[in-house]
Design a protein that fits this description.
W2 domain-containing protein, mainly alpha, ARM-type_fold
């Protein structure tokens, strides 16, 4: 006698479904940010913060998306960093968000050929030494 369908899932399947759902949300957020930045909406930053909050996107994930979309040669030439400072600052609420920003910014600068490889490597080396020193102090 079957009293209903067997809808039990394994923890692995639940994790896969959750990851797929999160990826879909990140994709939707990326499309939203791309469109709103393309339209040069003066309220873009507020709308982006609201959308991230509505989607419950972690700050560190939002930073990664914003870095990819904001740190292009065109955006830097147009001095848009200052324009979007409040937006970026809103996602730097914790150390992970800030560290993600610095690492991604360095990579974005390199990808856009704004920094030479040796500068990026030196920048990464300084950060690694600082982290090692902080760990030794603890």
């Amino acid at each position: 006698m079957n009293l209903g369908s067997s809808s039990s899932t394994t923890p692995e399947k639940d994790d896969e479904n959750e990851a797929a759902g999160q990826n879909q949300i990140l994709d939707e957020f990326t499309i939203f940010v791309t469109v709103i930045l393309t339209n040069a909406d003066p309220e873009a930053d507020v709308a982006i913060m609201d959308k991230a909050s509505n989607f419950t996107i972690k700050d560190s994930k939002a930073v990664i998306i914003l870095i990819k979309l904001l740190f292009t040669a065109e955006m830097l030439e147009a001095n848009q960093i200052k324009h979007h400072a409040a937006l970026l600052r809103s996602f730097f609420k914790n150390e992970k968000g800030s560290e993600g920003f610095v690492g991604r910014a360095r990579n974005a600068f390199y990808d856009e050929e704004l920094l030479e490889e040796d500068v990026c490597l030196a920048w990464g080396e300084k950060a690694s030494k600082k982290t090692a020193e902080e760990t030794d102090d603890e």
